């Protein structure tokens, strides 16, 4: 390999490591959530420039929060099989550089939202970053309460998108928040149970101590609460009958796979709960937006 090729490979590797630090898949997931909430609030008068500013601001702030999280968790990440190859524990990015990178992105995202969309979505974004990096991240090493605490910033993108248009928090916005809060609990419990050995190695306490059936029971309870709550957007006039049918099918499916895991708590069945949660989120938002058009 020539000197020039080594230089290009080095820069490509460095850029790729910084991109990896932002967890692009999760960042896109969060941005899609905020966009769906904005569109639901704005229909039929969607302001495209405002929507693009929302995407820019929340993408920057989310990427920064995730990068800062990897800086803060560099030591437990270094002992877990699934995370020890991440940019900071693997040495591809220095810890102080990851910290600076994360802070710059967070501040840029909050500032962008404040300048273009107002103080409320910017404030909610700041609260989400604070809860995620300042409360949830250290609490993971101390208590299973980290899971419900972490579900709050996980659901706040719905309110960020909603308030970017409405400039206020109302019952419809809080309904979206509640749906995503319960969804997040099921999602994280399924992930935590499947990865519990790796998490124990790092000292993470994302799932409560106790029997497998206790954890499965929590999944079922959250899924049972999620099903009627997902009907509320139809009651509030946020979407139509198509959404109602979709919500019942998706919620029933989520409850069914959770019950199946409770009856026979195996890794395969837990993986179905996790996969179901990954499908539930975008499909529910998609059918909600489609039903509102």
Explain this structure to me?
- The structure is a single chain.
- The protein has helices at residues 3-21, 24-42, 48-72, 74-77, 95-117, 119-139, 146-166, 171-194, 196-202, 212-229, 232-235, 241-263, 267-292.
- With 293 residues, it is mainly α.
Relevant terms:
single chain, 293 residues
Topology:
Elements: H1 3-21, H2 24-42, H3 48-72, H4 74-77, H5 95-117, H6 119-139, H7 146-166, H8 171-194, H9 196-202, H10 212-229, H11 232-235, H12 241-263, H13 267-292
SSE arrangement, N to C = HHHHHHHHHHHHH
The biggest sheet, with number of strands, parallel, antiparallel or mixed sense and barrel status, is: none
Overall geometric form: flat
In DSSP terms (H or I, runs of 4 or more residues), the helix count works out at: 13
Strand content: under 5%
On the 0-100 scale, what is the average pLDDT? 93
Brief summary of the model shown:
The chain is mostly helical and 293 residues long. Helices cover 80% and strands 0% of the residues. It is built from 13 helices and no strands.
